[in-house]
Each structure stands twice: as C-alpha cells, then as structure tokens.
Amino acid sequence: MSLIIFVGSIASGKTSTARALKKILTDKGFTTKYVDINVNHGFAYLLTRIIVSLLKYRYTGNYYLTIRFNNEDFFRKYLHLVQFLDALYIPIKYFVSLKTFMLFNKFRKRQYVILLDEYYLNSIVDHLYFSTRLRDPCNRIGECTRFFYNLAFRVVLISLKKDKTLIIHMGRAFDESVREWMLREKTLLVDENHVMFRDLATKVLLNILKQYVGDNVSFRSYMVQEFAEAFRNLTKDVLEFMG
To answer: What's the pTM?
Structure first.
C-alpha cells in the first residue's frame, strides 16, 4: 500500500493535482482512493452549514470562513466547538475512509494507493492560526486546540508508521496565493495573515514530522509558478515513487 499526502500553500493546486493523479494512477492499474480531510469536516461541517443557512450569511470561500468573515465575534465563540467536533470525527474518518479501504484491499491482495488532500497536517495549522488570532480570553479555544492537535498528530503518526508514503509540499509565492484565492472564490475578502501563516507553519510542521517518521516516508517539495510544468514534474516523481 502507498499513501500520497498533499500539503502546502493556499491555492497552490493541491486538490486539482490529487484528483488528476487519481485518474492517472487508476489508468495504470492501481486501485486508487481520493480522500479530502481538513478543518471543519464531518459533524462540524454539518453544523456549520446549518448555521450559515439559518443566518443567511453570504457564502465566502467555505462554510466556516463564511461565518468568520460575516461575524467574527460569533466565530470566536463557535470555534472551540468546531475544534471539539473535528477531534471527535478524527477516529471515525480514519477508520471509515482509510483503515477500512486498506484492510479490504490487503485482504484481496490488491496494489492500491490513497491520495490524501491536505490531511490533518493542514487542519492543525489552520486551527492553530485561528486560536492564536482570536485569543479567546477564557482559553477554551486553547484547550480544544491542544486536544485536537494531540489527537490529530497521533493519528498522522499512526498512519505513517508502516506504509510507503510520499508527502508532497506544493508552495506558491504569497502574492500569487492571494490572487488565485480571490479568483477561485470570486471574492475580494482574504485574510493575508492566514495565507502567510499557512505557508510558514506548514513548513515548520513538516520539519517536525521528519523527526518522528521512518525511512518509509519520503518528502518532495515543488514551487508552483506555472501549474502545468509543476504538475508534469510532480507526476513524474509520483510514478517513479509508485514504480
């Protein structure tokens, strides 16, 4: 079994790349699964979507950012609940979306690969940013962040313990990330500090992760200037990794 994990800058093409690689690897005979995991998934996503609908907020970027951009005071109070629900969903997502697929294909002796879009690495970074940025005076956010961080990082380490893994970091220049975000989401609302924090904190987290994983985990980094060129280079490296 192989894992390929995509992390990196905002609007660097991670999702487009992962989905395109799924088709390429499937055409080459691999049993392939694409899994998107990030902040505000599962229980938190359902609740956030209901709140946005009830409050009739104008949709911006995604549902939790819609609340953040429309009512930051409410988002500050709501964030610790989002983090708690995200933490509760981690074991469910891991066993249902990942472990079940792994066991089923191992039982059938199939060669397979799982493409993880962002995974809990980006979730940890995003939760840390909002917790630091909002500074809840009651420190409830800090407590929930530590709970989420500990659980998420442990699950990441468990999933990287044995299987052959490639972690791909897709970086993009700050101004290009901001511009692509606004074009993609069709909005002028953007938190430039979030864009910068995501980029820097992800690199720091990857350096920390390297101290915990074994030789089965490889790291690759790509600076996305022209997406087509970056995708060609990345695809070549992935096929060599799978070969």
So the answer is: 0.89
